[in-house]
Amino acid sequence: MTARIIDGKAIAQEVRAEWKIRADALKARGITPGLAVIIVGEDPASKVYVANKVKACAELGLHSEHIALPADTSEAALLAKIAELNADPKIHGLLVQLPVPKHIDGDKVLNAISPDKDVDGFHPINVGALATGNMRFAPCTPYGSLVLLQKSGVSIEGKHAVVVGRSNIVGKPMALLLLQHNATVTICTSKTVDLAKYTRDADILVVATGRPKMITGDMIKLGAAVIDVGINRMADGKLCGDVDFESAKEVAGWITPVPGGVGPMTITMLVANTVQSAERSAGI
Ligand SMILES: Nc1nc(=O)c2c([nH]1)NC[C@@H]1CN(c3ccc(C(=O)N[C@@H](CCC(=O)O)C(=O)O)cc3)C=[N+]21
After folding, report:
1. Ligand 1 centroid distance, CA of 50 (Å)
2. Mean pLDDT of the chain
3. What sequence ranges are listed for the domain Tetrahydrofolate dehydrogenase/cyclohydrolase NAD(P)-binding (predicted)?
4. By the 8 A CB rule, do 153 and 134 touch?
5. pTM of the entire structure?
6. Is 106 exposed, middle or buried (0-12, 13-18, 19+ CB in 10 A)?
7. How many other CB atoms are there within 10 angstroms of residue 5's CB atom?
8. What is the set of domains in the chain, with CATH numbers?
9. Tell me, what's the pLDDT at 85?
């Protein structure tokens, strides 16, 4: 068997076109959705992310601002910038690129972002809203992964979904979203004893561990849908996922590539959340 490759770039384009209609409707009413991204310090990986995000905002005709602060920016100065953007009516979505430098308390930063502009969905109020099924902003990577499954025709209800990785930004919210869609959900961690026992039982397998190629074909159920959230840069400069694509594609029913899988969808859902936030602020 050879898996159907889930084309994240193509699906991202399709979803962006849907959101462009909504952005255009807002602009017709004189409201341009606006996104602000704050980056503290230099991180080579964030350059691609920022470049792709700028492109997506431009495609949809959104207003976007990039605030690049030096690595030695104080916590107080960062919190002041967040307060300024919280109060800025041109800005409907605001995020601080993670991780922040060690001298800054990341939780304080997430708490400072207005829950109404928190397009990452990382503020405790929005985390709680997702956990109780009253979703406001779904975190972009899990949200994008869910849309990839839906657009690929993978059924979720009643299926066994296994999420490997329990981070606050991917694993935990992914598990909650799948649960919301009536999957039977198992969350595994790097400490899980006999991980393959769980992954081999997964109809839907989402991998977000940050460990290159740790899931191999022999750990996957025949016909499973495999979503690879990992983006690892190898010594040769090439990107690879947390799944060993070559062996996995022989067993899986569907699989996302890296790059060109979850990454483009993360950006798309960030833009979608920004448009949704602007709609909400306009009372739509
Ligand atoms: N507050 C916050 N929110 C985030 O959403 C966030 C963050 N911080 N910190 C960094 C990570 C990383 N991230 C990526 C999103 C898309 C691609 C992406 O577009 N990848 C493409 C291109 C990859 C490449 O060519 O390098 C792909 O996978 O095809 C990459 C990385 C969002 N992040």
Report:
1. 8
2. 96
3. 139-281
4. no
5. 0.97
6. middle
7. 16
8. 29-115 (3.40.50.10860), 140-263 (3.40.50.720)
9. 98
